[in-house]
């Protein structure tokens, strides 16, 4: 089957957004003649739209009746219509209901607002653009809203209308609250030294590190390699594609951070928060939660407890929602659990305390995270290990809550 660019005005043969070339098949004769689009489902999947939307769009534009049979995968427009004519109409549909009104990228979702307006939410530039509510298709979309994507589904290319239950299967197991494991973590964490101020009793911990020149070089190489690998491993979300190629904005951001952070390839002594945020803006990802994951994994090193306050301004600026906070916590899991194991056990509480004091992490989000052993970002054993290390900070939060409640009672 022939494949064309979603934006057919783009002639670049390496354009990443592609779709099958629309095909037609004319059936019947006389008053019963009709045009079948046999690959409508494939086209709709590439556009991340239900196949009923372009089919209905054709009907409205041509003034013809349409027939939709999802079960048998048949999408029909009454009358005889040539493929070229329908392809031009498909281009109009893409322009009006798929492409971002700002950057013209097709990586958008349709969202119906509370006031009834329909917007195109762009995952590339973060902008939201209205669709023309005067078109008759908007009424159909309002009555037949896009199916909600299952948690963890891929981005563009997901078959529209795919069963949420089937796609969501297994997600619960990743996020399930393993009560017994959580209790065990809390029990084992009691012996981990940390003062209520959030500082570790480092004087009680003895460290033995090979400081030979060869060992230092080997650890540096492993750390850089691990950091690059960890930063590039992005978990699939409900609005992003799984896996990022080297030309994706996240990969570019990752490589830039690794090169420009102190000790990076560029030999920089310092990197300002404003410069980091400006780079994220240039790539159009300053509002993306995955950018927070890349930021922490690529920017922080084994000295993360001291580096978090240093880059606190940009970390706080880019962490704007609960989803961003969860991505930050996932980055800490990978940073401490995989890239820099030396951060376990004493470094994790310090990192969390630093982020908490910057108002980057909210109390409820951290406490919920601490009780749920997950394999979303790392394997389950590593997840357990990181949460065990974090338990002293979580205990401090709980005790701080208890103290606040006692003070409130005293004021009554």
From TrEMBL:
SMART domains: eIF2B_5, eIF5C. InterPro entries: ARM-type_fold (IPR016024), IF2/IF5 (IPR045196), Transl_init_fac_IF2/IF5_dom (IPR002735), Transl_init_fac_IF2/IF5_N (IPR016189), Transl_init_fac_IF2/IF5_Zn-bd (IPR016190), W2_domain (IPR003307). SUPFAM superfamilies: ARM repeat, Translation initiation factor 2 beta, aIF2beta, N-terminal domain, Zinc-binding domain of translation initiation factor 2 beta. Residues 181-202 have a biased composition (Basic and acidic residues). One of its GO terms (molecular function) is eukaryotic initiation factor eIF2 binding. The keyword GTP-binding applies. GO terms for cellular component: cytosol. Belongs to the eIF-2-beta/eIF-5 family. This is Eukaryotic translation initiation factor 5.
């Amino acid at each position: 089957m022939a494949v064309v660019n979603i934006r057919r005005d783009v002639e670049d043969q390496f354009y990443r957004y592609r779709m099958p070339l629309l095909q037609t098949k004319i059936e019947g004769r006389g008053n019963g003649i009709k045009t079948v689009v046999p690959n409508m489902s494939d086209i709709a999947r590439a556009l991340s739209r239900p196949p009923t939307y372009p089919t209905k769009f054709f009907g409205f534009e041509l003034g013809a009746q349409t027939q939709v049979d999802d079960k048998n995968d048949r999408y029909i427009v009454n009358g005889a219509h040539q493929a070229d004519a329908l392809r031009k109409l498909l281009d109009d549909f893409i322009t009006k209901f798929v492409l971002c009104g700002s950057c013209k990228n097709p990586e958008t979702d349709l969202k119906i607002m509370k006031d009834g307006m329909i917007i195109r939410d762009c995952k590339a530039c973060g902008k939201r653009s209205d669709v023309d509510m005067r078109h008759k298709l908007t009424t159909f979309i309002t009555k037949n809203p896009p199916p909600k994507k299952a948690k963890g589904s891929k981005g563009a290319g997901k078959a529209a209308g795919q069963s949420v239950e089937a796609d969501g299967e297994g997600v619960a197991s990743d996020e399930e609250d393993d009560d017994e494991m959580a209790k065990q973590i809390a029990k084992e964490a009691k012996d981990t030294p940390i003062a209520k101020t959030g500082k570790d009793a480092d004087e009680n911990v003895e460290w033995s590190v090979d400081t030979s020149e060869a060992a230092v070089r080997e650890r540096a190489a492993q750390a850089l390699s691990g950091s690059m690998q960890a930063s590039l491993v992005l978990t699939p979300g409900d609005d992003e594609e799984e896996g990022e190629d080297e030309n994706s904005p996240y990969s570019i951001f990752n490589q830039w951070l690794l090169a420009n952070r102190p000790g990076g390839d560029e030999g920089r002594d310092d990197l300002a928060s404003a410069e980091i945020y400006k780079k994220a803006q240039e790539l159009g990802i300053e509002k993306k939660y995955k950018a927070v994951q890349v930021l922490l994994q690529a920017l922080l090193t084994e000295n993360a407890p001291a580096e978090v306050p240093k880059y606190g301004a940009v970390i706080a600026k880019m962490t704007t929602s609960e989803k961003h906070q969860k991505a930050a916590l996932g980055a800490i899991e990978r940073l401490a659990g995989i890239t820099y194991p030396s951060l376990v056990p004493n470094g994790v509480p310090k990192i969390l305390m630093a982020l908490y004091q910057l108002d980057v992490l909210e109390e409820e989000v951290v406490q919920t995270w601490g009780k749920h052993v997950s394999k979303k970002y790392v394997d389950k054993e590593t997840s357990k290990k990181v949460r065990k290390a974090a338990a002293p900070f979580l205990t401090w939060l709980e005790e701080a809550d208890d103290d606040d409640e006692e003070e409130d009672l005293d004021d009554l």
